[in-house]
Amino acid sequence: MAITDYRLMERICRMHYYDGLSQDKIAKRLGLSRSAVSRILSQAKDEGCVEVRLRFKTENYYDLERQLEERWGLREAVVTPDCDPQADLNQIGVEGAMYLKRLLKPNMILAITWGRFMQNVIRAFEEDELRKGMRFPDAEIVPLVGSVKSETRPDNDLSIYTSLLAARLADILNCSVQSLPAPMYVKNPEVRALFFDEPMISHTLDLARHADAAVFGIGSMREENWIAAIPEQQRRELEKTAAQNGRGEIIGRIYDSGGRETQCKYNDCVIGLSLEELKKIPQRIAIAYGPGKIEAVRAALNGGIANVLITDRSTALALLE
Questions:
Q1: What is the pLDDT averaged over residues 306-319?
Q2: Using CB atoms within 10 A of its CB, is residue 25 exposed (0-12), middle (13-18) or buried (19+)?
Q3: Coil, strand, or helix at residue 130?
Q4: Rounded CA separation 232/223 (Å)
Q5: Domains (ranges, CATH) in the chain?
């Protein structure tokens, strides 16, 4: 039977956990190999000599996040305390901004869409001073989809202008930006084809197709905010699609319960990426929460449209039912 040197074990544990020394430094100081130090630290945990306690002042939903990741095959889930869907700036926006700050790298292309969720992320950068020290001169912000001319929102509401949101975010991050001077919806596929032939628009959309990451919201088929922001003709088409198999909206595209883009005239009139093109982007970050969006979020996850989800506690619990 091997004899354990508990004095040495305790010394190594104190050096590592109390003094903050790395395993390499401990090995050099005690004349051991790094693998021996690692083995002794692991043994100390296995025998109950070391207990790890985390004491954070903020609420943490690590277990809930892990369950979401396992249930839906997500790259990462970020869960916040419950949020008020009507709040202008809430924890969801802050978490979205912090995630982007961690995600952004030099030479990265980040694609975004319009919406109040995106505006809240940008406001979080401004109000919480997350922008300090952030400079990505070789990164680029590009729109995923055109902008909306709302009949119910004032023209100075920046949340409906994808290119303006992209420009604002690029200014905060000190990086480049591409514009998409086009509406999100046009009256027929023929008009859309004309827009796609424009060099500036085709160039921007091609950059979006090659983005390293995309951030977008998820719309419910019964959600007043985004549906009210589109023309009456498209609203009637939407009602027809919702009554058939439409379950949610992402980057202007309507999809069914399996996360598949529906075959409807509405989707044929969108100026932006398709859902299949979106799914080819490596990191796809969806920000969505609230009881009215659960069906839409579940359908999007069914189809693998998003592989990162930022949501609140109640929505996360509902997605695990």
A1: 95
A2: middle
A3: coil
A4: 15
A5: 6-46 (1.10.10.10), 62-319 (3.40.50.1360)
